[in-house]
Amino acid sequence: MTDFLTSIYPWTKAFHIMAVISWMAGLFYLPRLFVHHVERSDAIDGLAPVFEMMEGKLLRLIMRPAMIATWAFGLLLVFTPGIVDWSAVWPWVKGACVLAMTWFHHWLGLRLKDFSDGRNSVTGRQFRLMNEVPTVLMIVIVLAVVVRF
Ligand code: HEM
């Protein structure tokens, strides 16, 4: 099994990176959609359900499968022999940031449910601030895996 994981390592990493790009695209865009949902949807009748449809499709059809694929390929990389040196700092930093990114994904899902239940209480400004969370985490993760401090 470990020989097999070693032989497919470049493929696993390639698909991990593709999944990461897709997941990140959604994590960056969904909070932006929420900003406009909060600030603009009262201006035009029928706009709020259009936002909800776009947000729901982004979350369910792109972000959720991409998050699952990121985790699946990432864990295959973890189990590939010789890839992760647990005595180094970077895997722990990356692990903590990845857990925070996963929490952020679920936080967005809860906010979407609030919108569909008509009880959103987060302001556009707060969504703008939260939009920085995946940016900061992404910077730390990429530095951790590439620079390997
Ligand atoms: C979801 C759980 C994740 C796990 C378990 C995981 C695990 C791993 C592992 C073990 C590697 C292999 C490092 C190597 O080949 O030397 C890797 C590579 C990589 N990961 Fe992740 N990762 C996860 C999520 C993420 C996220 C969220 C990002 C970006 C925001 C990311 C970006 C990368 C990049 C860019 C590489 C390639 C680094 C290189 O070329 O050496 N990963 N990941």
From TrEMBL:
Family membership: Belongs to the HemJ family.
Summary of subunit composition and partner proteins: Homodimer.
Cofactor mode of binding and number, as noted: Binds 1 heme b (iron(II)-protoporphyrin IX) group per subunit.
Enzyme class: oxidoreductase
Membrane association type: Multi-pass membrane protein
Cellular compartments annotated: Cell membrane
The protein's name in its UniProt record: Protoporphyrinogen IX oxidase
Superkingdom of this protein's organism: Bacteria
Residue numbers binding heme: 16, 94
Reactions listed under catalytic activity: protoporphyrinogen IX + 3 A = protoporphyrin IX + 3 AH2
Cofactors: heme b
Record-listed E.C. numbers: 1.3.99.-
Originating species: Sedimentitalea xiamensis
DNA repair among keywords: no
Transmembrane feature ranges: 14-30, 61-83, 89-108, 129-147
InterPro entries noted in UniProt: HemJ-like
Metal-binding as UniProt keyword: yes
Keywords: Cell membrane, Heme, Iron, Membrane, Metal-binding, Oxidoreductase, Transmembrane, Transmembrane helix
